Recover the amino acids of this structure.
């Protein structure tokens, strides 16, 4: 029985391989460098267990396009090698934050602007999802029910996100 549980867990981990932050990564930083064109955004949040207990030291990998929708330097857009990216570790209270710019839609697409997250912690299921923005005309109603998306408002240039790891 235990063996079955273990093999299922490793299958799950293999299917959802995530980039892991260095152990000494900071809990806050910059995704977009100073001077990057675009609307400035500050994103803050927490990583907790389902009961709300903070998870310190959780690994976060965050990446996004520039404000024209490119992952690389235009015309390159390879999401495996994004220019705007950041590794973080949640702090002792489970908190993390970063500054960035609002990403753009992929060129000539109806893909909503989004920020990718890969989040993991020992003994928990990793989460891969993207923040999309409340009020964006490309956000589809079904995205609100899909755990791969988190539809978040931008209020005074700020976005908050509560990440739960099971
Ligand atoms: Fe993307």
């Amino acid at each position: 029985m235990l063996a079955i549980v273990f093999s299922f867990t490793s299958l799950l981990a293999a299917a959802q391989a995530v980039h892991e932050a260095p152990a000494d990564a900071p809990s806050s930083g910059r995704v977009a460098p100073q001077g990057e064109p675009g609307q400035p955004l500050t994103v803050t949040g927490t990583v907790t267990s389902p009961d709300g207990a903070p998870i310190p030291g959780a690994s976060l990998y965050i990446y996004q396009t520039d404000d024209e929708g490119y992952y690389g330097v235009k015309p390159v857009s390879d999401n495996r090698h994004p220019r705007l990216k950041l590794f973080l570790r949640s702090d002792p209270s489970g908190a993390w934050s970063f500054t960035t710019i609002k990403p753009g839609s992929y060129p000539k697409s109806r893909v909503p602007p989004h920020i990718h997250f890969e989040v993991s912690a020992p003994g928990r299921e990793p989460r891969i999802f993207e923040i999309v923005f409340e009020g964006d005309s490309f956000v589809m109603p079904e995205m609100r029910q899909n755990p791969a998306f988190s539809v978040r408002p931008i209020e005074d240039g700020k976005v908050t996100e509560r990440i739960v790891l099971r």
